[in-house]
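Sequence, please.
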């Protein structure tokens, strides 16, 4: 149980919160002003409930700032009847765990205290969190890793194939850092992001005065990557005219800067695309001879949905990276289930963004299912129907169970509030909970009146 410091100038509110905390099994301590609250802080305080408006020249924002500036500061929850966009943003920016509007009910207070992180921070993890790490031990990723090892020291051109977000540039960098060229430059060029009329200059360079705006010589990416690796990303989007020049560069190992003379090149070329080049060749949109020149050593990265065993190692890796090496934040079993059930159409990039978003928007050390925002209906896969039974009644029942579970989690188990959110009566909720094995079907108890005042 926690020791909670209540800092509020209203005696009735302090007494009401203290009584509720005691009933919930916690130990309350009180302070009537900001200065008294700061003086009462100690290592024994596990959390602070802080009023926003207090007399005496030291308001809640000032107190919050001073508390959070201390090493090993306890989590602080701001309570106010005068919530505004400005004070909410400022409180969260300064490190408040949450910003709540008075009055706060007993169930809400219980749920809040259950969510609070431990004051004792975890030690730094000894695990590596390099952003370039290749995470995954699925059969598909093992094949990719083996191919990298076999091709790294080769001078052959490598073609990396994979959907958007699978980590094609990561594979290219791994080929570079495990090769004998690792001490030389790695230069990446996104062929789809550069206008066609500038791509030749970007890759081959130009001489001063060769065209309007060429105010100085430019070496170009091929020569910038001298003795190193040139990564041509999204080569499937390269214009046909440019494809012919790339083919000549690969065949003859010579380039011609715009307005200049031919020069030899010594960079190794790795290309990547999310498109099916064989289909583009058949459609006349990609040169067949360039396709065969690029496709010397193909490495295909499987999408994340085809290697579900890699989801959790990747999630833990991104969690560690987003926590700056601290192992403080953890995923609950429900969050893990949500991650595992999602199809990840955006692949590894989408997973990284979801984990980073959860870390930023979750003050608690515990990341639960409701904190996992995939933008697909509370973490459900866009193809979740593939996981449901074939007949309509069973599919409806499955969806009903998911909605009830989600509502109960959001309300901290408060069935009355869950029924209100679901827009059904309580007795129907109890019946459905019993049907799906979520509870014994009996009411959880009477609702508890709010604790707190409305005008301070």
């Amino acid at each position: 149980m926690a020791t909670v410091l209540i800092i509020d100038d209203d005696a009735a509110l302090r007494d009401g919160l203290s009584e509720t905390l005691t009933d919930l099994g916690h130990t309350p301590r009180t302070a009537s002003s900001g200065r008294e609250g700061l003086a009462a802080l100690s290592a024994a305080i596990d959390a602070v409930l802080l009023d926003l408006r207090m007399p005496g020249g030291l308001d809640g924002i000032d107190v919050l700032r001073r508390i959070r500036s201390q090493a090993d500061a306890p989590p602080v929850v701001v309570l106010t009847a005068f919530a505004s966009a400005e004070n909410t943003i400022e409180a969260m920016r300064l490190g408040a765990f949450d910003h709540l509007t008075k009055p706060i009910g007993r169930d809400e207070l219980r749920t809040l205290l259950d969510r609070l992180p431990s004051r004792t921070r975890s030690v730094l993890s000894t695990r590596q969190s390099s952003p370039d790490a290749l995470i995954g031990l699925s059969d598909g990723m093992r094949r990719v890793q083996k191919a990298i090892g076999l091709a790294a020291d080769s001078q052959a051109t490598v073609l990396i194939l994979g959907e958007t977000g699978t980590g094609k540039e990561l594979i290219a960098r791994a080929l570079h850092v495990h090769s004998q060229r690792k001490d030389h430059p790695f230069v990446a060029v996104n062929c789809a992001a550069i206008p066609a009329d500038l791509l030749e200059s970007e890759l081959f360079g130009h001489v001063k005065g060769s065209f309007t705006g060429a105010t100085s010589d430019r070496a170009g990416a091929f020569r910038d990557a001298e003795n190193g690796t040139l990564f041509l990303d999204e080569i499937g989007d390269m214009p046909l005219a440019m494809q012919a020049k790339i083919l000549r560069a690969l065949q003859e190992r010579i380039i011609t800067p715009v307005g200049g003379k031919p020069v030899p090149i010594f960079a190794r070329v790795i290309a990547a695309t999310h498109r099916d080049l064989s289909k583009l060749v058949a459609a006349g949109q990609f040169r067949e001879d360039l396709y065969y020149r690029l496709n010397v050593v193909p490495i295909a990265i499987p999408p994340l949905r085809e290697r579900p065993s890699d989801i959790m190692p990747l999630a833990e890796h991104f969690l560690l990276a987003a926590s700056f090496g601290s192992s403080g934040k953890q995923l609950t079993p429900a969050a893990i289930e949500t991650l595992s059930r999602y199809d990840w159409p955006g692949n590894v990039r989408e997973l990284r963004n979801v984990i980073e978003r959860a870390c930023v928007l979750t003050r608690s050390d515990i990341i639960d299912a409701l904190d996992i925002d995939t933008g697909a209906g509370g973490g459900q896969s866009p193809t979740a129907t593939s996981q449901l039974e074939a007949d309509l009644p069973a599919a409806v029942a499955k969806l009903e169970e998911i909605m009830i579970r989600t509502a109960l989690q959001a309300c901290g188990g408060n069935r009355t509030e869950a029924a209100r959110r679901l827009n059904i009566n309580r007795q129907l909720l109890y019946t459905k909970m019993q049907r799906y094995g979520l509870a014994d079907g009996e009411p959880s108890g009477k609702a508890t009146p709010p604790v707190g005042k409305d005008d301070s």
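Residues 392-410 form the longest helix (19 residues).
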